[in-house]
Design a protein that fits this description.
Helix content is 67%, strand content 0%. By secondary structure, the protein is mainly α.
Amino acid sequence: DYGNASVFFTREQAVHDRAMSRKAAKDRSALEERSGYKFADKAMLERALTHISALSGGPQKRADSYQRLEFLGDHVLGLVISDMLYRAFPKANEGELSRRLADLVRKETCAEVAKAMDLGPALKLGNSESHAGGRLRSTILADVCEALVGGVFIDGGYAAAETLGTSRDLMLDA
């Protein structure tokens, strides 16, 4: 009888989720401390850290994952770094600024920043993605780094995203 197994799984999952919730809250608090930004809207932080595999309900639930924030964060990060380069290199031409921007705003750099921030433990992944090593996967870490920038931008505005995006300990030393 699958109905009973489903109920058993749900109870077991609920116990597991409560334990994970306490650990996740601790991980998120530590993440906020490492990033230097404390979210006013904790749901925004949660969304920035939620991989699509952690959601049920199919494609319509994509908006609850980090994907939209990743899109925004990629562009906010590009703006923040472009602004920084423009100010830091007043004599540089457009080509030089573009090369510098391309060197700094890359998936590899974002993945390195995510590793430096230890984003992996704070990620919310589905079981299969978690068991497949998703917390260490560079593509996921890069995406979540961008999503975090997008979340900071929505939660705290450009100045907060700029502070995070140009942090000497993070972006510039990655």
